[in-house]
Each structure stands twice: as C-alpha cells, then as structure tokens.
Amino acid sequence: MIQFYAPDINETLTLPESEAQHCIKVLRTRIGDTIEVIDGKGMRYTCRLLDDKPRHASVEIIERFPVLPVWRCHITVAIAPTKNIDRMEWVVEKLTEIGVNRIIPVKCRHSERKEIKIERLERIAVSAMKQSLKATLPEIWPMTPIDKVISELNATQRFVAYCDPTIPRLSLAKEYNPQSESVVILIGPEGDFAPEEIKAAIDAGYCPVTLGDNRLRTETAALVACDTFHIISQLTQ
Amino acid sequence: MIQFYAPDINETLTLPESEAQHCIKVLRTRIGDTIEVIDGKGMRYTCRLLDDKPRHASVEIIERFPVLPVWRCHITVAIAPTKNIDRMEWVVEKLTEIGVNRIIPVKCRHSERKEIKIERLERIAVSAMKQSLKATLPEIWPMTPIDKVISELNATQRFVAYCDPTIPRLSLAKEYNPQSESVVILIGPEGDFAPEEIKAAIDAGYCPVTLGDNRLRTETAALVACDTFHIISQLTQ
C-alpha cells in the first residue's frame, strides 16, 4: 500500500504538488482511481482522484478512518544531535519507524552540534511515516536548551541516560513501567552530559538510567531506549 | 580510549599497516608510548610501541587480558541483505555495536540482492567493534541460501520473523528465554519470506515470531530483534 501525505487534505481536498507529482507522473494514477492519503494527525482517507494535473490534483474523500499508533504510551526522545548530520537523520527515520511521538533536539554543554535545521528532519519523518504505514507524524521541536527540556517537560516517567559511571544508574528496562501514560528520555551528546546537567535532571525528578553494559553511540542509544519502551510493553499485552 | 585492531598481534607483535598509519601518522604515537590493541577474538593487549615506522610498527606486549562480551547468549542474526547496500552496512555497524556474535547474509526467493561482498561489511564491523570498546569481532558469513541456514544452524532457540499475517506468529519478546545459551533469528527480505520458506523453517523447529505491531524495514527488524534479546536479558540480571 502506498500512502500519500497531505496534512490539509480534509480542508483543501487537493494533494500537495510534490505528492501529486509522485502520484500522477511516477505512479501514473488516473482520474477515477482511488488512493490512500494520510494527514499526519492520525487520519487516513480513501480518496478518488478527480483531476490528474500535478498542480491541481483534487480528490473526493470516499472514506475516512482513524489510524491510532500501535503503542499506547506517549514517547518523547530528547537527544543531543550528533556532529555527523547523517546519524541524526538516520535516528529520526528509525525512531519514526519503530514508533515515537515527539523528538526534541537538545543543546547541551558538550554538544558537538549547536544548531540544526528541522525542515529536513521533518521530511525524513514524513517519508518514514508513509513507508511504515503510520498516519501520525512525530512532533519535532527546534533545538532546545537542556535546562528548558528538564524544567518544562512533564510525563508519567522521565529518564536521563548517560555514560558517567560515577553517578549511580538504574536499568531502564527494569525501571520503565509499561502502564505509564507518557515517558521522556534524555540522551546526551558524544561527550556525554556534563555532571551538572545530570544533577539538574535528577534534582528535577528524572530517573538516572543505563541502557545496558554496552557503550553505544548517541543515535544508537536513542533507538535502544525507544525499543526498550516498546519491547517491555509487549510483555504485558 | 582508542583501540587498534591487530588480529595476529600475539604472533607478529606488529600492527597492520593501516592501523599503524592511524596510530603513528594521525595520532602521533611515538616509540615508548603505550597503546591498546584488540585481536577481535576476545583479547585486549596493552602494548609499548618499539618502532614508529608505519610499515613496521612493532610492539612489545606489556599485559594481556580477556574482554568478554557483556551479553551471555550467543546471538546469530541471519538477514536477507537489503537492495540498498547502505542499509545493510548500517545494520552491520549497529548489530556489532549493540552486540551480536554472528551475521549471516541469507539468499531467499524474494531477495532483492543475490550477491554481497563481505570484505566491506567486515571493515565496518571492525570499526564498530573498536568504537564500542569490544574485543570480539562478529563472524560474518558469505551469502548463504535460506535452506542451508535452516538445516545447518543449531541453537537453543531458533526464530523466524516475517510479516505475512496469514501464518500465525508469537511475540519474540515473550518467547525468548533469557536463559538460552544461543539463539538464531531469521529476518526476511523487503518482499518478506516466501510462504514455503516460512513453512520450511517452522517444520525444522523454528518458532514463528513477530517483533510487534509496527511495519519495520528489514534492517530495522534485525536491530529490533537483537535489542529484544538484550533487553529481555537485562530483566533477569
């Protein structure tokens, strides 16, 4: 099944031009054919193509139905973007694919990357959402300072993952409660969080965790953390 | 800590030229300096550099000690290589980083890629092993037909993961027993295993599994499966 992304389909009844190009020029969809359209907000629409000009690909909605995420817990991954942008783009693709609700690029003291353009990350998330047959786009925040993330995010459980072995850590797999309605996990930069950042998170109520005994890259840690939430949740289903 | 890879260090007492180049030209290590060397077979050596010519970087071994994997279960991931080679290279990097003992590229009926050069995959695994501070290189097999994989691999638990919802599947997270000494997981190609391949695996005693309700790409499925073994094991530690 191919899904087209049209965030405003319900109002405009028209595909955005890039999606229309793909639909009409590449896949050769014709007037009267039916297509599946998602809005990134949890709705899927079965539509009939009324006009096959890429600049004005209008549709008629035949059926609309909600496509809920397959996981129940609202997951936020707050991650210091990697120096190598490919690795950050990769993690956005993979987090979207395995299932996440919100991705927050975090600026830390040891961050190798202090700025990030989120438009490209959003395009990657759209592509991964379509490919993995979801209908909800993860929310991607602009770069946010760590102190703001720590103080402003609320969740049933909040975790901070780091490498520094001198500050005691618990096991994320054991601490995560699959009944939690929402979780936040903070993942530090290549050089780890500064000790005062870890302390600030713990003082604010974050649970200090390790993801296991392996040394993981930043982007791998984000993925393993998100996998941990999904896998532990499956045990109770 | 930087690790250099010299598979025959114990016999040759010399760094391979590419490693010696990095050690001497890039990192400017000098005669008398100590370096850490791994052999990919589970041993780490603290060495003193005796000669700083890149073509003949001889060393003296000061200390040798075993570095065991941090996981106890022997993990084999048998995966149909993706059409896009970048995705296959990426999964080799990530599996090595999160911890795997053996990677087997599998040729299936629906495989998009029928041949693969493993030399480049081995270089990627070496790099990931060094970076993640391991001392054991995963074994990488050449491309192997699915029927050979099914009939020849032995393990305490063997799993076949697929998408086809018409053949009943269990949950990998629930079925994996963290007391198992060894596991094998089969991951199919982009177009999934053929039904007769799934049947052959089940007939041979493989447990049919799903990795959850998400639709995952081949390379993501391999990573999530390997994560499942590690995360479930952590619950019993």
UniProtKB/TrEMBL annotation, chains A, B:
Domain Ribosomal RNA small subunit methyltransferase E methyltransferase intervals: 72-228
InterPro entries, sorted: Alpha/beta_knot_MTases (IPR029028), PUA-like_sf (IPR015947), RsmE (IPR006700), RsmE_MTase_dom (IPR046886), RsmE_PUA-like (IPR046887), tRNA_m1G_MTases_N (IPR029026)
Superkingdom to which the source organism belongs: Bacteria
Pfam families: Methyltrans_RNA, PUA_4
Keyword S-adenosyl-L-methionine (UniProt): yes
Gene Ontology biological process: rRNA base methylation
Ribosomal RNA small subunit methyltransferase E PUA-like domain boundaries: 15-62
GO cellular component: cytoplasm
Catalyzed reactions per annotation: uridine(1498) in 16S rRNA + S-adenosyl-L-methionine = N(3)-methyluridine(1498) in 16S rRNA + S-adenosyl-L-homocysteine + H(+)
Keyword set includes Disulfide bond: no
UniProt keyword annotations, A-Z: Cytoplasm, Methyltransferase, rRNA processing, S-adenosyl-L-methionine, Transferase
Subcellular location: Cytoplasm
Major location (coarse): cytoplasm
GO molecular function annotation: rRNA (uridine-N3-)-methyltransferase activity
The EC number(s) this enzyme carries: 2.1.1.193
Family: Belongs to the RNA methyltransferase RsmE family.
Function recorded in the entry: Specifically methylates the N3 position of the uracil ring of uridine 1498 (m3U1498) in 16S rRNA. Acts on the fully assembled 30S ribosomal subunit.
Identification of the protein by name: Ribosomal RNA small subunit methyltransferase E
